[in-house]
């Protein structure tokens, strides 16, 4: 039987006939994104790029916030980030941004460590290290609220993710909020106590690969194909994938496997589609946008609903005429149906 490409893909090919054929993609250290090291080193990305006649240059950016800024400025065509940071950085800066892949959600990979506090309520009055306005900040705000506290009850000390572990080691502050692999290293090296983690916020912190909405169709397909090919290997604990992740992260294979155990990896594209379409994702996104608005992360808007966020079923949070962030499940659905 002859197979026909979807009409929208044929149109996209025609539209991009004179478009560029080389693309730049960035990612940062985090166990859920570390597979991109393998995808590059193994040649998986090159194979999928060849399939669509493009070159894909994958670059690791060690400072996470720097990667967000560089994607927002146009240096990169696609970038790994959480859904909160997709809204607070590119979307807020006017970049129409779409989810390509929902790779995982944090199930203990983000947490609060303290040398002094035995629980969240004991944080009152303490200095707390974190990457301000990051997902760590969101996690802390949610934890404080659950404990009957607010951010006004603590002192936030903002540090970049590239420096935060060294600052915590120095003893500058007794409490740290961060993500793996930094979280695991800090816990092991300092013996600080984990007093709250993202397993208590199931599905609220989504780890994504996003693109500009108008990015070339070929790149979207190639990235999705390379990712799920690798996820199949990782699901089966292919040690070549784990070893590549460990080498990139500067960690042992055992450490990588431990971190994966505290990450809800969505190895199957069908699971990614399910999360994208779930009501809980819409509700989590509503909480995230409120946090962003309350902390001035949505630019100079004066109303929470000024920026629109769309979902696969057509639902919209905010202004439907000003969509800046799109939870898109189409490419994951293509992967699930072997249509890449």
UniProtKB/TrEMBL annotation:
It holds the Pfam family NMT1. It comes from the Bacteria. Keywords: Signal. Gene3D superfamilies: Periplasmic binding protein-like II (3.40.190.10). Residues 1-19 form the signal peptide. Transmembrane segments: none annotated. Its main location: periplasm. Residues 52-196 form the SsuA/THI5-like domain. InterPro entries: ABC_transptr_urea-assoc_sub-bd, SsuA/THI5. One of its GO terms (cellular component) is periplasmic space. It is found in: Periplasm. Belongs to the bacterial solute-binding protein SsuA/TauA family. NCBIfam families: ABC_peri_uca (TIGR03427). This is Alkanesulfonate transporter substrate-binding subunit. It comes from Grimontia celer.
